[in-house]
Specification:
With 177 residues, the chain is α/β, with parallel strands linked by helices. The chain contains seven helices and seven strands. A seven-stranded parallel β-sheet has the order 3-2-1-6-4-7-5.
Length: 177
């Protein structure tokens, strides 16, 4: 086997990305502190053609050198918006027909592999702060909560790792419906 060169990967240009069909998925970041986590979410969103990222509360926005360090330009390809409060983002997305899903450990949450996607409406996933997770009032406003099963001694995953797992999962189930 030989590793591919960048020129052999046939990636989209930023203009081609903007006009390409997107996954009916919006990622909402609820007060994410680390600019590197924000940049990583942009890069993952680019990889799977996520429709949009909504940056809420204290979550930093581009242009920013630290976001760019991990996004590697994905902040230019992926559509994004900034909303002062996550609850406003939830209200706006619900009015647009999105099913709102918190990625959080909750009583009654559904394990991600057990979540049933019906393809009837687009989905907005909410990822929370590195320490406190998704705010309780935001969880209360969601249609459901999904959880990633974990089998070790730690009780959480890094928010950018969580984003990668969840975005990839939804990419797979949305393409198989």
């Amino acid at each position: 086997m030989r590793k591919l060169r960048i020129t052999e990967m046939q990636r989209l240009t930023v203009d081609e990305f903007h006009s390409a069909q997107k996954l009916p998925l919006v990622v909402v970041l609820d007060n994410v502190r680390s600019l590197y986590n924000v940049g990583s979410v942009f890069r993952t969103a680019d990889a799977f053609r996520v429709r949009k990222i909504v940056l809420c509360g204290i979550t930093a926005t581009p242009p920013n050198a630290e976001i760019h360090k991990t996004a590697l330009g994905a902040e230019d390809s992926v559509e994004w918006t900034s909303v002062a409060d996550t609850m406003q983002a939830v209200t706006d997305l619900r009015k647009q027909g999105y099913s709102i899903i918190a990625v959080e450990q909750c009583h009654g949450s559904t394990m991600i592999n057990d979540y049933v996607y019906s393809a009837k409406q687009p989905i907005a996933i909410i990822l929370g702060n590195e320490v406190h997770g998704v705010r309780q009032d935001v969880v209360d406003a969601c249609d459901t909560c999904i959880e990633i099963p974990q089998y070790g001694t730690k009780h959480s995953l890094n928010v950018s790792v969580t984003a990668g797992i969840v975005i990839h999962h939804f990419y797979n189930i949305m393409h198989n419906v």
